[in-house]
Predict the 3D structure of the following.
Amino acid sequence: MARCTAPVRGHSSAAAAAACPACRYRTSYRYESYGSSYSSSGSSEGSYGSSGRSISSSRPRWSNAGSSVSYTPMQVQSLTPIRETVEARAAEQPDLRDVFLCHAWDDRNGPAKELHDLLVAVGVKVWFSEKDLGLGVPMMRSIDKGLANSRIGLVLVTPALLARLPKESVADKELSALLAGNQLVPIVHNTSYDALRNVSPLLASRSGLDTAEDSMAVIATKIAELVAV
């Protein structure tokens, strides 16, 4: 009998689950998280990933019934605690911006700007270092500053970020605290969670969103739904 690879490799995305010998043929998934359960079937709520493989979908409680986007069960599982952070911080500090966007310097005029503009277009209030922080500020200071002024953070994981992370000397304890506080959502673009795991196992331990599964525009819409209160 095939054994699930999640305990060793982790199912950080629908594609990872699809590659698992025990999970790839399942027609339904069920996850229990934070006192709530989400289930879906691979029938009427099925969707297709970038590989063309059928992926079951689920609707999180914060997404309206008429929403144009669908979520994988893994996305619902990983984003649910982030949503709880959004709700808590919105109640405590209603004037905070919705998100801050952490990115590599080399991406400032490329994918980071693209994501920023898409988020703004769908009504998300973004703390963006290109507009809100001086040049040359270390990454962790940018994260600290951005989170102090925002409900949650997005980390755009690209090849440029992977090259920069080791040079930034990001402390495990700092990153661990941010992840434990359910404040960061990794968005992987033009790379993979496996590549991220080689550089930052802690950051890779938190699954998020991936442009291999969703377009930047769809990801922006999902973030907009996630932070709407």
